Amino acid sequence: MKKNILLFLIFSFLPALAHSLMLDDYSSTSTVVASTSADTGSSASLNGITGVNNNALEMTYSLGTGNWAVFSKDYSSRDFVSDLGNSIRVRYKATGSTNTLEVKFTDSDSTDTSKCDKLVYKTALIDDNSWRTLNLPFPAFALFGDGTNSFDYKKVARVAVGVNQDTGPRTSGKVWIDKIEVLKSTTNLVDDFNDGADPNLFNQDSTAFATGGTVTKEYATVSGEKVMKITYNVPSNGNFSGITIGLGNRNYQNNTHLSFKIRGNAGGEVLKFKLESPQGTTELFVSTFLSAGITTSFQEVRVPLSSFTAVNFSTVTVFTMMAQNDTGINSGSGIVYLDDVAFIRVGEESKVLLTIDEMDMDFLSNNWDSSSHADASQSVSVISDITVPDSAASNRVYQINYNFTNSPSKPTETPYTLIEKQFYHSIHPFSALKFQYKGTGSSNNVEFKLTDSDNTTWFKKFFIASNTSGVWKNAVVPYDQIVFFSAGDDSSLNLKKIKKVEFAVAKGAGGSGTFAVDSLEALESGGELDQSRPGNLITNIRTVNNPFSPNGDTVKDEVFFIYSLDAESKVNLRIYDLSGNEIKMVAAPTQSAGEHALSWDGKNSGNENALNGLYIFRLEAESSDNRKDIIRQIIGVLK
After folding, report:
1. Cβ 118 vs Cβ 105: under 8 Å
2. Separation CA 214–CA 325 (nearest Å)
């Protein structure tokens, strides 16, 4: 019988545990630029402070003789470089054919995308159904100057991913895409040779050369990785041979070392390498930087750029690996394998500055549009895939099924398929917004405003909420509590294209103070319960931080039960596991009519941490006139 009751409870009261989307963690003030404005007679300034989770934004304001001060962030474009962003990371896998993968960004020179500059990177798809991670330094992208002819990295408005038939057959295939990110990378990769072809990531080729000797350049698979194989022979004095890798006249002054991996076929191979710039060239022995010389295992060679005394690193042209038969060196004949040529910064760690898209949300709800050439077609779906490197257990990816017809209507044109996204926030799949806030100083009203792509604004007002005595609090704003504020092209708020979010302090008591915000999230319905129950002893109940993660990191370490009583009552909070065992009881003293709160820290009655999973909470109230009320619901522990 108890099992039947439990099943009834679970299916009657189980909400879907809240999935959330972090819209802004305010850890950076530069990837999306924040600004302030104020009414005449008021003033406002903005600073970064330590927040609940990481950093937060705090406005210092003085209303003076005015009525409001506001800070806002515009999400219609992204700044890739203010936090020293220098590369893009994207993950993909493919099957079906060896066509070309294209990644494209568009700046915001104009509302007409045909008049905006674009950055485009292309690479041949490796169709072996294995996930690959592309780390693409900004210089690896080619500029298409359709706007000012200078790509604005501070105002990037769109991202696109597509497949075109540059190199492959007119046939069908599949591509899976996951997690596009902007990085502050410590590695400027020149070539990892994974595609087994030229050009490299800087759009430059590699070339074999020989004077009096011989050399062949090919690609081989060693321990599952594609590498460059160099076979050389320099039999006579004065012979030399090798390969050059173009570096595209790039500036590498922000790096500290040249890095590459090398392995010999026999071990003990004697080779030189060099870097060239228009101002000079420096040659060095590989063995100088390997204590045991070249062996039959791959070793990383790290060379301080200061070792290249004649090279000007503002314009580096060529990297060369060579065999030589001359005074002081006789390379003879042999085979070596080369991999992962890069310029790096030692002593720093790479950092994700901005996640452009995790590909976890439904395709159309997430502002992606689809387009195809007349001789191409595609369909896009969202599927679960936890085989992606470093993915979570709930990871989802975009699957693109494409087809290039072999009976083209425009045979002289290159067919393509493309998905493209504007950088607005899409909160359409969710049902509430949540943020954390704190304030000091005068007690004023707080207005939370959302503006869409056509400048329509809706808002939620919190009366006399600006002063929390410096204590962080949570605010959950269901969409049905957001009301019309001002019209743009229409009066409807487009939840798929939220351009701007504002926090305004509006005159209540007036005066001055501070107001800070952290962790703006969109929440799915059902996780954080907010239930109105007029006519009952418990007239309202809502939970905050459901699910919660009691792991001691100060983030969501407790779940809060906030409820209202319509009469003085005794209140108990009981927590049960799904077998019906009571694991915790919190008894409150007699409480007056009005709003109250209890919390659970994830520990049982023995002060032991509860395991991950679902639990039932039971909130009981009994009034002085013997009225009783009980609420049961599900909460989740997820550490």
Report:
1. yes
2. 12
Q: Sign of the C-alpha dihedral, residues 22, 24, 30, 32?
A: positive
Mean pLDDT by 10 residues, the chain (639 residues): 35 42 74 83 93 88 96 91 86 91 93 91 89 88 88 93 87 94 90 88 91 95 92 96 93 90 97 96 96 96 97 94 94 97 90 88 82 94 90 87 92 93 86 90 94 94 90 84 90 91 94 94 62 82 83 76 90 90 90 87 91 88 91 82
Q: Would residue 82 count as lying in a domain?
A: no
Nearest 5°: the CA angle 82, 83, 87 is 95
Which residue do the tokens 């393509």 mark?
A: 416
User: Can you tell me the distance from the alpha carbon of 529 to that of 523, in angstroms, rounded to the nearest whole number?
Assistant: 11
**pLDDT tens digits for range 275-288:** 999 999 999 999 99
Check: CB of residue 117 under 8 Å from CB of residue 147.
yes
Q: What is the pLDDT of residue 523?
A: 79
CATH value at residue 338: 2.60.120.430
In the beta sheet, which residues pair with residue 422?
A: 158
pLDDT at 12: 36
Q: What SS3 string covers 313-375?
A: CCCEEEEEEEEEEECCEECEEEEEEEEEEEEECCCCCCEEEEEEECCCCCCHHHCEEEEECCC
Tokens of 214: 């011989």
Residues facing residue 241 across a β-bridge: 210, 323
- The dihedrals phi and psi of 117, each to the nearest 5 degrees, come to -75, 150
pLDDT digit string, tens, across residues 451-489: 999 999 999 998 888 999 999 888 888 887 888 999 999
Would you say residue 81 lies in a domain?
no
Torsions phi, psi for 29 (to 5 deg)? -95, 5
| H or E segment to which residue 72 belongs | strand 68-74
Last residue of a domain, one of 344, 361, 392: 344
Strands 332-344 and 187-191: antiparallel
Instruction: Give Cα 264 distance to the centre of its chain.
Output: 39
Q: Which of 477, 494, 523 is the last residue of a domain?
A: 523
What whole-number distance in Å separates Cα of residue 182 and Cα of residue 357?
10
Domain tally, the chain:
4
Helices (H), 383-449: none
pLDDT at 555: 65
State the Cα–Cα distance between residues 349 and 346, nearest whole angstrom. 8
Q: What sign results for the dihedral spanned by CA atoms 288, 236, 297, 140? A: positive
Please give the pLDDT value at position 92: 96
Residue 366 main-chain phi, psi, to 5 deg: -105, 25
The boundaries of the domain holding residue 484 are: 21-76+427-523
Tokens at 488, concatenated: 């743009």
Q: Give residue 27's pLDDT.
A: 74
Pairing of the two strands 87-95 and 445-452:
unpaired
Looking at the fold, whether 367 and 469 belong to one and the same domain comes out as no
Residue with tokens 């896998």: 93
Q: Say how far residue 95 (Cα) sits from the centre of its chain.
A: 25
Q: Are residues 194 and 272 in the same domain?
A: yes
Residues 196 and 339 in one domain: yes
In terms of domains, do 503 and 458 share one? yes
Q: 312 with 227, same domain?
A: yes
> pTM for this structure?
0.67
Question: Is the distance from CB of 197 to CB of 124 less than 8 angstroms?
Answer: yes
